[in-house]
Amino acid sequence: MGANTAVARPRGPAGPASGEAPAPGRARRAPDDRKAAWLFLAPALLGFALFYAYPTVRGVYYSLTDYNLLAAPNFTGAENYQQLVTDDQFWNALKVTGYYVVVNIGSQTLLALLLAALMHRLTRSVVLRAMLLVPWLVPNVTVGLLWMWLLDTNLGFVNHILNTLGLGTTGFLSSPDWAMPSIAAVNAWAYTGYTALLLYAGMVQIPQYLYESASLDGAGEIRMFTRITLPLLRPVLALVLVVSLIGSFQIFDTIAVTTQGGPVGATRVIYFYIYEQAFTYFHMGYASAVAVVLALILGVLTAVQMRLLRASRSDLA
Amino acid sequence: MTQTLTGTESGTGTGTGTGVGAGTGTRTRPGAAARKRLTPGRIVAWAVLAAALVATVFPFYWMVRTALTPAADLYSDSTSLVPQHPTMVNFLRVMGLTSQEEAVAAGGSGAQVDFLRYLLNSVVYSGLIAVLQTLCCAMAGYAFARLRFPGRDAVFGVLIAALMVPPIFTLMPNFVLVKDLGWLNTFAGMVAPTVLMTPFAVFFLRQFFLSIPREVEEAAILDGVGAWGLFWRVVLPMSRGPLLTIGLTTTVWAWKDYLWPLLTGRDEEVRVLTVALGIFQQQSPNTSPDWTGLMAGSTLSVLPVLVLLILLGRRLVESLNFTGGK
């Protein structure tokens, strides 16, 4: 809010200054570019104040209120948080999200590592990389629909293959046991190429001569991978893990178009639970409290990962 | 399984072709002489890459294949790799180019859909955000990198701290704000939270501006160019690469965006593709979904991405190097 008013004031005088800025005879810039700076910063600061700073404060406030969008928020103190502790659905949402994150990040990172290593040792093809990137470029909604069709119990191609192999039919998205791993696999499909490209970019920076001398010493590809690639990639790998972990916790689109949190809550992840509470039941205050918890979890995770990253760096040095 | 492999090979012909081409390319690299022989290990490695490529491309092939299938054939012809009676009717009906009766006859639910309009809305939505956000963030990034003013580093620090706040947290208050402004179901409300800045774009562009040698700017300053003219006429033209990188990633992000436009832009006039697909799917009966129509709509959401990839693929792929290698 403070930043907001601070922007509003200098905007007036800064307006005409824009025309005068390239004024003649100004051989040297003044040591203080205050006027120009406010002009340059005005749009970004306005956006920051209105849509980042203000809503952050407001979100914390909502979490302490009873608010249904129609009437003004009614301050209730820590009530939402007390309710949260005993809310089975909330704990289930956390559990389901954790399950999703482990399966999704685990499979996606391992596959991406494999793909990146293969590309690194085999080819520099831009076309190949561009093609692997396509699932990431496509909206998650499209990915969700596409796989909903492929995984369809009666007509889906995957079940057709399984039937042909004599493995029977599986209700990938309709069985409570299969729904979450299926969603995790679908999103791993969507993000593996992207993750592989990030890891590949890290591998390219590893000096080529290391591989050449190792090769002269008779080291095989697998040995080179575990002794050269993996240790030298560790900082990049940790960074990529942080980014994908934080992204993975925020899974929403795919679930919103496919399972809608079902069957029987099997895929009601934390993001979807917040969405449901806020925009289906209009429990804005309660939803904000859950969002505060999610923000804290993500903050802690980032800190832990960053520490791991630093630790691995000192190992290397 | 073999059937799948052979079937998709035609679909991924270009991919396999380039793979081989690039393999030849590596031969010219120094020190690669020992590796050009096709050992069993290398054959397995190439096979794994090829399998990954097939797994990547086949779902899209199946999407297009389904979109070209008449709805009446969905049960009788759900496994052959090429539709027995290919048709464009699904594309025509989701683009609103057939009469209501024809659409229903071809498997539609009878609800009015106009994917041409949603496509256009998506282009407007992502275009507005990409262009304006890149410009505003470039201005801010430049101010933080080069201009001297009191409180600069403190303000920058606060801006970057916003990277820690997950989007869902600001989603609800922002929705209330946009609703109170009366901006629901307008492009203004839909682009508002991201059109002026994102902390990452400011950070990224500031880093780039810091890396430009000062000499270029100093020469222009000696010629009497002010900060404003300097930025637009000297700095921006030098920054094409990073601007394009941020612009492209923002375009992709906005193109994929679902939750925010779902909350603020459900109306037909401003409905973007992702929201339209979600609504289309909900309108379609649960027991027998309109798969041919849904896949036609999905195909339309993928086509612009392919165009982008063909035009700017190299830049896009290398921008991942850029951000990842930072």
TrEMBL record, chain A:
Keyword Cell membrane set for record: yes
Highest rank taxon of the organism: Bacteria
Record-given protein name: Sugar ABC transporter permease
Membrane topology reported for the UniProt record: Multi-pass membrane protein
Domain ABC transmembrane type-1 as annotated: residue spans: 90-305
Region of interest: Disordered: 1-29
Residue ranges crossing the lipid bilayer per the database entry: 36-54, 98-118, 130-150, 188-211, 232-252, 281-304
Biased composition annotated in UniProt, kind: Low complexity: 1-25
SUPFAM superfamilies in UniProt: MalF N-terminal region-like, MetI-like
Keywords annotated in UniProt: Cell membrane, Membrane, Transmembrane, Transmembrane helix, Transport
Family, similarity comment: Belongs to the binding-protein-dependent transport system permease family.
Subcellular location: Cell membrane
Gene3D superfamilies attached to this UniProt entry: MetI-like
